[in-house]
Amino acid sequence: xxxxxxxxxxxxxxxxxxxxxxxxxxxxxxxxxxxxxxxxxxxxxxxxxxx
Length: 51
Prior knowledge:
This protein is α+β, with helices and mostly antiparallel strands. It contains one helix and two strands; from the N terminus they run ββα. The longest helix is centred in the last third of the chain and has 9 residues, at 40-48.
C-alpha cells in the first residue's frame, strides 16, 4: 500500500474453528516525509473506525 505520504504492507491471517472465523491484520507503515511520522498512528486509527 502507499500514497504520497506513506508506504508499507499489511498481512491478513484467517483462522477458522467451530464455524467461527477470526481475522488478524498486521500493518507495517512508514512515513515518506519526516514531518508525517507523528501522524501515521492517528491516521491508521481513524481508518480502523470505518472497517
